[in-house]
């Protein structure tokens, strides 16, 4: 039977959680006081929504094959992403065979170079790429992890990101990553408060549990070095995204400065093999954290991960739910995964892309059997109750 071709690609937007997990209601821990690159402006310090963290919303990309099979994926790109898919990328997708993912990726990337390279354009390309992998899996009746070479372990192990590592420990996770609250603009008093929060959490969780700080691009080398040195006595496992993503030189300096054994992790807002090549060749970090919905999709993550392997770096993708689980389970240099606690108080496990997907698996006791990922494609369905809009058509 000839391989089906792609008949249609459609782009939708949806608000309220989903792939734009920052798009939450008021009072959610993820919108509490968190140190950001905007924290130097007091008027944008207390919530991240105040400076527009949730402006994009979720993009849903749907691809339909000539045999009627559909695949889809979600990412953070909203209406801008929908425009790019419908008005620009569709031409590289429609009419191609469903197996032509590599060529479609190459054409999408090179045709958008003049306004793309990173950020929302790469989020959008990632969304299309993930939808194509989902479609291929559904046509082949295989999970994406099988198409990537198959699992290398029987279960995934998770650390939790959220405001309550103490509760995450009770829920069976191997570690807890807290958002850093206070940035350099709050001076030494803020630094002391950050360290006091870590000390308090170490007291609550005891010694046999990882604790990490997520600094969300907000520090400078001097502050990050002092934070890392102060955090040593509380056994901070890693300091994450301490600096703006373009400051490769700063990361290299920070990595030289941190106490022996403390890891420097980054890459959540980096994209493509070329961006990660900079991080690796400049010795910026120990662990890279690409988001498969932002870095270029699975097609690009395969390349990033191979590059990391050759540099003896671990790849622990940022969030991204099933899209990263199917990858992590197939790679030796991805020994554990992140789970983002999306309950408003970080006090229970809820699906990360809640309420957009159905059948989205979640860790139980901090673990997930690989068999939970055994459905075709990425194994998830769009919740039919989602209020999808299609702002552009081609
Ligand atoms: C909690 C962080 O500020 C951010 O919202 C998520 C993140 O960076 C991560 O999960 O890592
Ligand atoms: Mg992070």
TrEMBL record:
The record marks 291 as: Increases basicity of active site His. The active site is at residue 318. Its cofactor is Mg(2+). Keywords: Lyase, Magnesium, Metal-binding. Mg(2+) binds at residues 214, 240, 268. The record marks 338 as: Transition state stabilizer. GO terms for biological process: carbohydrate catabolic process. Its EC number is 4.2.1.90. Gene3D superfamilies: Enolase-like C-terminal domain (3.20.20.120), Enolase-like, N-terminal domain (3.30.390.10). Binds 1 Mg(2+) ion per subunit. Catalyzes the dehydration of L-rhamnonate to 2-keto-3-deoxy-L-rhamnonate (KDR). Reaction proceeds via a syn dehydration. Belongs to the mandelate racemase/muconate lactonizing enzyme family. RhamD subfamily. This is L-rhamnonate dehydratase. It comes from Halomonas eurihalina. The lineage of its organism: Bacteria, Pseudomonadati, Pseudomonadota, Gammaproteobacteria, Oceanospirillales. The gene is rhmD.
